[in-house]
Task: inverse folding
């Protein structure tokens, strides 16, 4: 083919390159920011999958029973015996979960997909006619013959993360015995797809442009079950193209560093409603179109359950808008008839965690929680007052005091399990944290 004949083909080729460059150049800052927030929701789950198998010794379809009282992870729930697993299923295999009979205490076996969406909860509330015995976690079109006494549950994805919780209550020994009776195994040998590679990063240092280098594979690895996400996924693919183009990579990287990452750090604050110094994410566990809430919660407290199971509040400031600090004594008073027990069918608790990794802070008393079991003392009028200070305030019952770190800022996490309708609807906020005195006044 001579040059004249080839010219039309060359012009089409060059116009295609020009159009691609124009499209990459025209990606707005907002599109880059939106794409980053959306993609990070999946990346955070993939990072945890990689860490669990590399560092925690997880094996597919095998449950790990955690020791009671473990405080080494973020926002620990010290009310329950925890068990964890990763489940893999396919068209020819299901995963069997055996659940013992559990009465008069809270329990649930929660399943989450690769985006952090809660897809199932096994408990007596969701399966009143079959609260225990065997459950089969299967894909919709799985070709697996099950025994007639097995309760089949359809999961939307081939991989799931599992958290089982059994309330410790007044008899922790019995709770751990029940915990260890929860069993898990596969009916076959599922084909398990290798997780796409995601860049390694520390919690306080989220990735930059490199998170888009494998974006299409990340999206393909797990379907987003929520509707209306197609537009966001197209933005992700557009930013991936910009990341792979030498002419646009640096400018896109700057947008991520200067705009997308600051937005990412502010997600938890943005998605929360605030009152009395307490923050509440109206959506958790199941997010619908609210992908910002999903990414924010995956970052701040991954594996959140939905509001039918639990409602979570966090506090970082007092009524004056000051960050909580161990050099100060704070109190919060629940009026008579509106004590924490009145808002939870099962149990409630409050813990103090650091502001960096959200882990409990060591203290000389090894006291990390106030809850239903710690014997909080009511006031003479029937109200309940809790105190937060680095030293036990004079005249305050030890049961009503939670140690805080002297000279350091901290957060409080308040949980209600089996929350009342008022909590589920997002209308309730805990009482304000009132500044009482400084640490010097305790000495």
Result:
């Amino acid at each position: 083919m001579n040059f004249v004949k080839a010219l039309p083909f060359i012009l089409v080729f060059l116009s295609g390159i020009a159009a691609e460059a124009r499209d990459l150049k025209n990606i707005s800052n907002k599109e880059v920011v939106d794409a980053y927030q959306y993609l990070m929701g999946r990346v955070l789950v993939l990072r945890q999958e990689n860490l669990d198998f590399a560092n925690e010794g997880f094996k597919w379809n095998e449950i790990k029973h955690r020791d009671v009282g473990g405080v080494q992870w973020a926002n620990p729930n010290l009310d329950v015996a925890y068990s964890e697993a990763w489940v893999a299923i396919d068209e020819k295999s299901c995963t069997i979960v055996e659940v013992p009979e559990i009465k008069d205490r809270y329990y649930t076996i929660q399943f989450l997909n690769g985006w952090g969406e809660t897809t199932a909860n096994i408990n007596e509330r969701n399966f009143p006619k079959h609260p225990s015995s065997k459950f089969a976690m299967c894909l919709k079109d799985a070709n697996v013959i099950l025994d007639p006494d097995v309760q089949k549950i359809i999961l939307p994805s081939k991989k799931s993360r599992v958290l089982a919780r059994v309330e410790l209550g007044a008899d922790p020994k019995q709770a751990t015995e029940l915990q260890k009776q929860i069993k898990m195994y596969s009916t076959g040998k599922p084909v398990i797809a290798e997780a796409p590679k995601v860049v390694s990063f520390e919690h306080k240092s989220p990735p930059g442009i490199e998170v888009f280098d494998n974006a299409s594979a990340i999206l393909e690895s797990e379907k987003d079950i929520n509707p209306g996400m197609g537009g966001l996924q197209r933005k992700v693919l557009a930013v991936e193209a910009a990341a792979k183009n030498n002419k646009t990579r640096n400018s896109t990287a700057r947008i991520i560093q200067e705009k997308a990452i600051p937005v990412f750090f502010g997600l938890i604050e943005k998605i929360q409603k605030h009152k009395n110094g307490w923050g509440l994410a109206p959506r958790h566990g199941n997010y619908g179109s609210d992908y910002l809430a999903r990414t924010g919660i995956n970052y701040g407290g991954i594996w959140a359950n939905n509001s039918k199971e639990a409602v979570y509040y966090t506090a970082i400031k007092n009524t004056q808008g000051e960050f909580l600090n161990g050099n100060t004594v704070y109190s919060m008073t629940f009026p008579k008839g509106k004590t924490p027990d009145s808002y939870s069918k099962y149990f409630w608790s409050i813990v103090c965690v650091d502001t960096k990794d959200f882990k409990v802070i060591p203290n000389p008393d090894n006291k990390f929680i106030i809850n239903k079991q710690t014997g909080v003392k009511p006031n003479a009028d029937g109200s309940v007052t809790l105190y937060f200070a680095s030293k036990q305030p004079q005249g305050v019952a030890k049961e009503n005091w939670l140690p805080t770190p002297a000279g350091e800022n901290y957060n409080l996490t308040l949980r209600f399990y089996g929350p009342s309708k008022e909590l589920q609807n997002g209308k309730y906020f805990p009482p304000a944290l009132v500044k009482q005195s400084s640490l010097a006044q305790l000495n």
In short: Residues 10-22 have pLDDT under 50 and may be disordered. The domain at 64-186 is CATH 2.60.40.1610 (Immunoglobulin-like). The first strand starts at residue 64 and ends at 65.
